[in-house]
Amino acid sequence: MAALLLGLLLFALQSPPLPSRPLADGGSSPPPTLSPADNATASHPNGTLQQLPQIIIIGVRKGGTRALIEMLSLHGAVAAAQNEVHFFDWESHFQKGLPWYLSQMPYAFPEQLTVEKTPAYFTSGKVPKRIHQMNPNIKLLLILRDPTERVLSDYTQVFYNRLQKHKSYQPIESVLVKDGEINLGYKALNRSLYYVHMQNWLQYFPPESIHVVDGDRLIKDPLHEMQKVEKFLNLEPQLNASNFYFNKTKGFYCLRDHGRERCLHDSKGRAHPHVAPAVLQKLYQFFHEPNRKFFELVGRTFDWK
Ligand SMILES: *[C@@H]1O[C@H](CO)[C@@H](O)[C@H](O)[C@H]1NC(C)=O
Ligand SMILES: *[C@@H]1O[C@H](CO)[C@@H](O)[C@H](O)[C@H]1NC(C)=O
Ligand SMILES: *[C@@H]1O[C@H](CO)[C@@H](O)[C@H](O)[C@H]1NC(C)=O
Ligand SMILES: *[C@@H]1O[C@H](CO)[C@@H](O)[C@H](O)[C@H]1NC(C)=O
Ligand SMILES: *[C@@H]1O[C@H](CO)[C@@H](O)[C@H](O)[C@H]1NC(C)=O
């Protein structure tokens, strides 16, 4: 039951349908850059300005990135971009350069920190280097959940998108398993190989710059997990128990922002597909070793099956 609710929640927290694949490298001229003095636009008469993000939520897809950015924006010292910007992973955006990226940022007061989230950054090989070039001291947030649950959630999102467009879809067992073996060619599976992608980030950023948020715990105990985030970002501890309340009908936490209550989604009718127990078992077994490698990499363990 808990797993089902979790699935419902995380599914419904999804961002808009999967964007199309980024364009391949065009080999065109390097994008325009900003001089370091130019990280922010001229301030607006109301005292706000746009600034390059000092924090980026890099992923993972279906990990709970929407919940994380919404909870983070409860903090008065944080200004969050509304949309997924896809600057560092999409060539067509990256070629427009930092001035364009800046133009996508929210208006913030100078003492606020700006954050954007694009879950596809985590699994895109070229992104870490590009972010490092912009700001080697940036703070990165990565929210992860049980890799098996994440694969099922990833499949479910694509499944519903295809269903909506009246396109055909393959049953989950046939994408997960090929010739009796776990299908390594399935992209959603690869996205859950966290250590593979993490290694890439650690080539550019020290471990102290990347805080891993436990997505499974964020759902069950948001305040505790968010307090760790505040600490990592050196934010004044501001979130408290009154920012979160449990909605029994929905079965998860909603947010209270200056007295305004909002829940993150409408969970109607979306559950994980039923997966043959033998396949599920195979999946859990498959992730055992990759998970161990990830724990070793980050020096921390997670409560994954
Ligand atoms: C712009 O960003 C760079 C690197 O992130 C930093 O060293 C510099 O101090 C910033 N400049 C301003 C004016 O904030
Ligand atoms: C300040 O102006 C910007 C640009 O028009 C606007 O987006 C923002 O909401 C304003 N902020 C406040 C606090 O008035
Ligand atoms: C998974 O993705 C990474 C990064 O895109 C790639 O280097 C790796 O070869 C992929 N692994 C498998 C098993 O497909
Ligand atoms: C929680 O924070 C709000 C606003 O920041 C404040 O008004 C309230 O008194 C705090 N509640 C508790 C229980 O500390
Ligand atoms: C709790 O969830 C139910 C069911 O989705 C919803 O109708 C209701 O408005 C929510 N209540 C609060 C206080 O968030």
UniProtKB/TrEMBL annotation:
The protein's location, in the record's own words, is: Golgi apparatus lumen
Query: What is the enzyme's main class?
Result: transferase
Give the compositionally biased regions (Polar residues).
36-47
State the Pfam families in the record: Sulfotransfer_1
Query: Known InterPro entries for this protein?
Result: NST/OST, P-loop_NTPase, Sulfotransferase_dom
Q: Which UniProt keywords apply?
A: Disulfide bond, Glycoprotein, Golgi apparatus, Signal, Transferase
Q: What is its main location?
A: Golgi
MF-aspect GO terms: [heparan sulfate]-glucosamine 3-sulfotransferase activity
Record's catalysed reaction(s): alpha-D-glucosaminyl-[heparan sulfate](n) + 3'-phosphoadenylyl sulfate = 3-sulfo-alpha-D-glucosaminyl-[heparan sulfate](n) + adenosine 3',5'-bisphosphate + H(+)
Q: List the disulfide bonds.
A: C254-C263
Look up the domain of life of the source: Eukaryota
Alphabetically, which GO biological process terms does the record hold? Answer: glycosaminoglycan biosynthetic process
Q: Which residues form the signal peptide?
A: 1-20
Q: What is its EC number?
A: 2.8.2.-
What does the record give as the function of this protein? Answer: Sulfotransferase that utilizes 3'-phospho-5'-adenylyl sulfate (PAPS) to catalyze the transfer of a sulfo group to position 3 of glucosamine residues in heparan. Catalyzes the rate limiting step in the biosynthesis of heparan sulfate (HSact). This modification is a crucial step in the biosynthesis of anticoagulant heparan sulfate as it completes the structure of the antithrombin pentasaccharide binding site.
**Family assignment?**
Belongs to the sulfotransferase 1 family.
Q: What is this protein called?
A: Sulfotransferase
Organism, scientific name: Austrofundulus limnaeus (Annual killifish)
From the UniProt record, report the name of the gene that encodes this protein.
hs3st1
